[in-house]
Amino acid sequence: MAGRCCIVSIAFSVIISIILSVLLWFFLSGSPQQNPIAMCGECHCIAGTSSTGEPNTCPAERPKMQYSTATIDALRRQRAINPHELTCDPYDNKKCQLNPPQDDTIDLGDSAVCGIVYQFPMNIDSELASNTEYLDSADDIFSVGTVKNSAGEQQNQNSNLCPDAPQEYLLISYPNEQAALADGAIITHHGACGACSTTQDLAVYLTTPDLTSASKECIKRSLLNQDEGIKCLQDEIGFTNACARIWMYNGENTGQKCTLPCAAAEIQNYANNGPAPECALNGCLGCDEEQSGGVFVKFAGRTRRRSGVLTTIARPCEDIVMIDHDYACPGQATSSVVMEEAGMDFLEEENGGTSVFDSASTSC
Length: 364
Hints:
By secondary structure, the chain is of the alpha+beta class. Helix content is 38%, strand content 9%. It is globular.
């Protein structure tokens, strides 16, 4: 009798696993097309309501989303001398750390920022400069060869659109903005530096506002073969290896812990946000925020909100910082790029009318 109960229990577990796997596959198989930039009513962020229930005023200033092709190209080319690598899954391994580890010698609280210190032209530490092992491994960490430009066209990296831009930089975490500026650093995002803090990953954030949809195909591949998932996130989206890994681990964790709400969101064709003025996240994104968000923020370092990048998901106004990333290509004018003001639906370049976003709302 006990043996029969055991068999029934095992069979039931297998059936449940199959059902959850099918739902997870369905959740990752596609998503409704979203506008490139989310709006909460007429505001670019969620302003919320006052104590009397009246909608708060939308901030007059909004993050800059007008960047020239030359600036995006410079961001993709520039290389961190000391990037953080990720070789473990922080959702499964509580002892997982970045390499090098995030700086625990200073108090990196809520006011921490990640700074870029450019090297002009190759004024780097002599030990790093002679570290041929690092220079060889860097080619494995960063994408090389052919990349997509801001118009989504294949472009050889040898065709430099911003020849005067610095090519290498240090990533340094600071306890606050004042410490970073005093050290001559450029603030690239709020929060400590992490796996996605490189300018290459920033270029992905700036050119693909609907990364939720774009990454799903890659996460789906990772369910069968993690290496294929990482390769997809690197080659087809443009992430560095470390950033690709944290996005993959985040997606897998969300898929496992949020299968039902995410499947429901797909079946019902839910928008990312509900109606204004609350503009609440749908069940899938809310679950992702709760189950995966904390670990992702800690290890990725750079997030869209922390970098001043608007996306297809409306976020609270107080969570979105204001950072201008034109530092990547000094002196580059951005007036050649114009924004469609009606809903901020897309950005276009006057020269040729090409979109600044790569296939904004499609899977990778």
